Structures are given as C-alpha cells and as structure tokens.
Amino acid sequence: MNDEATILLVEDNSDDAELIAYAFRKVGITNPLFRLADGDAAVEYLGGTGKYADRLHYPLPALILLDLKLPKRSGFEVLAFVRGQKATRHTTVVVLSSSNQQADIERAYDLGANSYLIKPVNRDKLIELVRSLDAYWLKLNQADTR
Amino acid sequence: MVTTAASAVGEPSTADPHELLRQQTTLARFGELALRSDDLDEILTEACRLAGEALGTDLAKVVELQPDGRTLKVRAGVGWPPGVVGVATIMAEDDTSEGYALKTGEPMVSPNIATETRFRYAQFLIDAGAKAVANVIIIGSKDQPAYGILQVDSLKPREFTDGDTIFLRGYANLIAAAVARLRAVEEVRAEEARQRASLEQQVADRTEALGRSNAQLDAFAYTISHDLRAPLRAMEGFARILLDEYSERLDATAERYAARIVSAAERMERLINDLLAYSRLQRTTVEPRIVDMGRTAQRVVAEARTEFGDGVKIALPETMPRVVAEPAVLSQVITNLVANAAKFRREGTIAHVRLWTEMLGDRVRLWVEDDGIGIAPEHQARIFDVFERLHGQEAYPGTGIGLAIVRKGVECMDGTFGVVSGLGEGSRFWIELPAEGNDAGWTEQQPGSR
C-alpha cells in the first residue's frame, strides 16, 4: 500500500486513540492517521457528505480501524454502511475492540470485517499489535486500491 | 318390590338349581370384571349383556344421571338399534318409572307398558318394541346422588319376580362399586396431574429465573471487566511511555512513581482476570472429558518457565495418567498451583518445584511440591478462601483468588484437594481427580449448586 494512503481510526476513547497514535509512531508508520470519535462522523466521512465531501482534504482511507462501542451509530452500523456502498465495499476493515464476546466477534465477521483484534491492556503488546498490523495489512496484503 | 294394582302377583321365579347356579357364577365373574377393569363402558355393557341374558330379556341398558340431575342418558346397552346408546335420553320425572325409581331407591317394574297408567315411557323405548321394563337403581357412594339405573326391557309383556329384581340389584350394586372405585381413581389421577403440572410450572419458572439471573451476572461481570479495563489501559500505557520516552526528564522519584502506576495497573488487570475466572466457575456447568493431564501439565510448566525464567526450576514426569476433567479448568488449576510454587520461594533462592502423580484406587492424585516458605497449619484452611492472603503485596504479589479458583475448579470437577506443609518447610499441594474409565464419581452439575 502506498505510504500516503490514509488510515482512518474510529475510536471514542481518547486515551486509547492517543495510545494507538503513539504505537503507530513507535512502529514507524508514516501514513496519515485520521481519527473520528463517533459512528455518525465515520459514516459522514466514508459517505463523503457534509464537510467530508472534499475528498482532497478528506480522502477515502485504505485501512479502517474500527472500535465497536461508539456513540451515536455503533461500530456494527458503520461496518454495515462501509460494506453497503460501492466506494468502500472492499476497504480493509480491522475491528479493534475491547470486547472478547463471541456474539460480537460473530457479528463483526457476519457484517464483513476483514479482521478482529482485541485491544491489549499492555502498551508493549499494543506496539506488537500495531507492528503486526503494519506488516500484514499495510505491507503484505493486496488491497483493492481502485 | 312395589307391586301395583294393575299387575298380578308375579310368577314363581325359576327355581331350577342349575339355572340358579349359572346365574350366581355369572354374577361372580362379573364381580371380578367390575373389580379389575378400568373401562367403565366395558363394565356397564357387560352388565347389560349378562343381566339381559340371565333374565332372558332382549334389551338391557344402563342410563346415567347427568349433571343437571334431571336427565338420564343411555350410557351402555345391548340389543338397541343404532342411535340409542350414548345418545338417547330419558327424563327423570315423577311420571317416569326411572324418575320414580331414582326418587324412591326401590326397584320399579312395569309388566306391560301398554296397560301402564302410572308412568309414561320414552319414545325410543316404545319404538324399539319394549313391552315390559324392570328398573333397578345404581346407588351412589355415601353422600353422592345415584349414578343411574340398570334396566332390562322385554319385547313381550312379562312379570318380573322378586328373584329377578334381587338378581338385578346384585349387578347394580357391583356397578355402583365399580363406579365409586373408578371415580376415586380418576380423582387421584386428576390430583396427581394437577400437582405434576404445578411442579413442572415451578421448575420451568425457576429455570427461567435462573437463566435470567445467570445472564444478568454474565452481563454484569462482562461490563465490569470491560469498563474497568479501559482506564487501566490508559494508566499502564501512559505511565510506561513516561518511563521509556521521558526518563531523562524525570528524576529518580518521578520514575519510581511512574513505575508504581504501571505496577498498580498490572495488579488490577490480574485481579479483574481472576475475578472473572472465579465468577465464571460459579456459573458454568462443567462438561467432563478425558484429559491427558501430562500434556496439560507440560503446557503449564512451559509457560511458567517462560514467565519466571531462571528464578525457578520445575521437574515433572514425562507422562501422567489420564483423568476425567474439564480441560480449561484443569489447566487453570495447575497453572495457579505452579505459579504459587514458583512465587512463594525463600528470599534470594531459586524455587525448586516438582510435580508428580500417584494412583489411589480409581483416582489420580497430582502433587505440586515446592521448597518455598511453607504455610503454618493454622492458615492452611483459610488460604483457599477468596481474598485471603498471608503476605503483603511487597513481599509476595498476588490477588488472593488463585487458590479459591483451585478449590472451586476442583470441586466443579468432582475432585478433592489439599495441602501438606509447615512454616519454612516448603509445601506440597495436591488435587485428586477420577482416573480415566471411572465416571462413577461424576454427578450432573447444576449451575450454582456447589
């Protein structure tokens, strides 16, 4: 994937968002990381409505990191939206959630998530996780870049 | 017997001894049927047949008093055209012989319907060609109204003798006894069914309530752990970043404080995990399986070696007997025992931990032995309770739940556990489980029953 491709982080918890951004820096990922804090904003961004219609400044992401528990629309609804519109149907979506409940995992895959990762409590493990993310989803995996 | 003005005195009853014997034998046999059969219709029909046969009448029937107290319905009968049995009714009024019989309780006889002035007769009776009728009441049990009437009908006018009616009464009384018996049986059955239904309802209600309460506990435990973990991530993460990235700007005290924050977060994480594990054990039904304890132990030991590094030396046999257990619970139990053995070492020494098994009849005992600080006898029961710790966090970190999990886990698997130890003498913890092939000790586990 090209180094300039945007990564969209949909995360309502500021602490977690901050730590993930830190981990990305630590691992050396230089792609722009754009963070949104609720489900409605995510749908607007990905749908290109309102201020996000400006694709020059708000490009479609190559990778979406999606938390499930979000204010307004839930992560599941965002996921359904993403898979429902042509422009983002094949975008890589990695669910990054603190839930290890079977029901949530099943539902995420049912709705078309590419991967489901559980947020580690430990900072070191978070760095490892982001490193793996980079190695697989950003570098190895062949995304649909059209 | 009521004799009426219109009838002549009855002919003498057939005094033939053979005939009498036959009639008595038939009555006795019917008595057995009345005692044994559960089918009232069978009893009534047989009574009609036998009575009719014995008395030489072509028609016989039993009419049953209906709940309205005024209608008699033909419940059973022989010789009648279709549409009578189960259908036809007679009114039990004063001007019917049946009504009169019911009222007085005495047999009623009409030797010739055509000339009968006292009573009127049901149309179906006349249509069938009955010319003479004898009614005997089937009495009800104590305090109950009469069940109905046993009636024989002759196609020719006929005098019914005392002997005839006494004979009929014999059948009628046996029928009455059968009715009383079957009613009692029916009542008992109905009561049983009612109680069973009520019990089933209670069980269903309780199961549902239990299910709901379990679901609530699950949701509660999950929410608590989930919500508690979020701030934990922040504490641990940022404190660690401070330590790693900003160490040159922190003095020794600041670094120490940051380290304490990290430590506290890690402790809380372990506490949450242990509490979740413990609460899950309370609520799960454990499914027994054959488990290769040797493989489980090897995995646990490998992890412990990684975690404790050079601080511990663990020895275990190459194989262990297979046991009846739940794999995840057994793994957790052994993990906790080995972790304790490694942790509670004497200061400045390497912990030496040894696992071994012995067969005790049809049970397998696993020993986890260490050469650590040991446990004084007065504390050996307490340590298996939740939140019981014998040392401060500084000396020996821990949540105080590890051994409580061992106890709950072993109990869930129908096993036993214990410890042999003395202060300063090391400890030998043991658990005992059924060996493979011995499922006899396993009982159905209900959630929350232990």
Secondary-structure topology with pairs:
The complex is a heterodimer of chains A (146) and B (450).
Chain A: E1 7-10, H1 14-27, E2 33-36, H2 39-47, E3 63-66, H3 75-84, E4 92-97, H4 102-110, E5 115-118, H5 123-140
Parallel strand pairs in A: 1-2, 1-3, 3-4, 4-5
Helix pairs in contact in A: 1-5, 2-3
Chain B: H1 17-36, H2 40-55, E1 59-65, E2 71-78, E3 89-91, H3 97-104, E4 108-110, H4 123-127, E5 132-138, E6 148-154, H5 162-245, H6 252-283, E7 289-292, H7 293-308, E8 312-315, E9 322-325, H8 327-343, E10 351-360, E11 363-370, H9 402-412, E12 416-421, E13 427-434
Parallel strand pairs in B: 8-10
Antiparallel strand pairs in B: 1-2, 1-6, 2-3, 4-5, 5-6, 7-9, 10-11, 11-13, 12-13
Helix pairs in contact in B: 1-2, 1-5, 2-5, 5-6, 6-9, 7-8, 8-9
Name the features.
heterodimer, A: 146 residues, alpha/beta, 5-stranded parallel β-sheet, 5 helices, 5 strands, globular, B: 450 residues, 6-stranded antiparallel β-sheet, 13 strands, 46% helix, rod-shaped, disordered C terminus
Polypeptide structure, described:
With 146 residues, chain A is an alpha/beta fold. In chain A, 41% of the residues lie in helices and 15% in strands. Chain A has helices spanning 14-27, 39-47, 75-84, 102-110, 123-140, and strands at residues 7-10, 33-36, 63-66, 92-97, 115-118. In chain A, helix 4 links the parallel strand 4 (92-97) and strand 5. In chain A, helix 1 crosses helix 5 (123-140) and helix 2 (39-47) packs parallel to helix 3. In chain B, strands 3-2-1-6-5-4 form a 6-stranded antiparallel beta sheet, sandwiched between helices. A 5-stranded mixed beta sheet of chain B has the order 8-10-11-13-12, covered by helices on one side. Chain B has a two-stranded antiparallel ribbon with strand order 7-9. Classes of the chains: A alpha/beta (146), B alpha+beta (450). Chains A and B meet through helix 1 and helix 5 of A and helix 5 of B.
